[in-house]
Amino acid sequence: MSIPVSVVDVPTRLEEYGTAAFLVTVSPDGTPKVVHVAVVWEAGAATFRCAPGSGTLRNLGGVTRATDGPDATAGSGAGLGPATLIFPGPDVDTHSWLVDTTGQVHPDDPELALLAYESGVLHRPASGEQVHC
What is the distance between the alpha carbons of residues 78 and 104, in angstroms, rounded to a whole number? Predict the structure, then answer.
């Protein structure tokens, strides 16, 4: 069961769900990566901002930097990548909030990701579809 969430409803949903979410990205070879992040909503840009790790930033086509040594790497920093934010419901009977975004590395801070809002839904299994493991 899904209920659409408009971009204008994001501030209200953040009040309900909080700012902690799981961020899902995909590497160039198709491997999914899930990390836990705190997000900040930039309403004027319809964008979430967060500080994931270097692997997630790489998945978004960005630059990662080690301070010294052989682990220092660089990318173009110009890439865009699909990313999904998942805000779990507080209990099994509450909808989770799923947000599809287009992500990129912040142009002024290579340690931040910008996630442009594309669409969102509140989702949970319909009655009778729940599987209790």
Answer: 7
Which amino acid, one-letter code, is at 40?
V
d(CA 57, CA 22): 14
Give me the DSSP letters along 100-119.
Answer: EEEEEE-TT-TT-EEEEEEE
Amino acid at 78: A
What the chain holds in terms of domains, given with CATH numbers, is 2-62+73-83+90-123 (2.30.110.10)
Assign 23 to helix, strand or coil: strand
Query: What tens digit of pLDDT does each residue of 72-106 get?
Result: 344 444 578 999 999 999 887 889 999 999 999 99
Q: What is the DSSP string of 42-84?
A: EGGGTEEEE---HHHHHHTT-----SSSTT-----S---EEEE
Taken as a whole, the chain contains a residue count of: 133
Q: Distance between CA 46 and CA 105 in Å, rounded? A: 15
Residues 11, 17, 22, 26, CA torsion sign: negative
Q: pTM surpassing 0.70?
A: yes
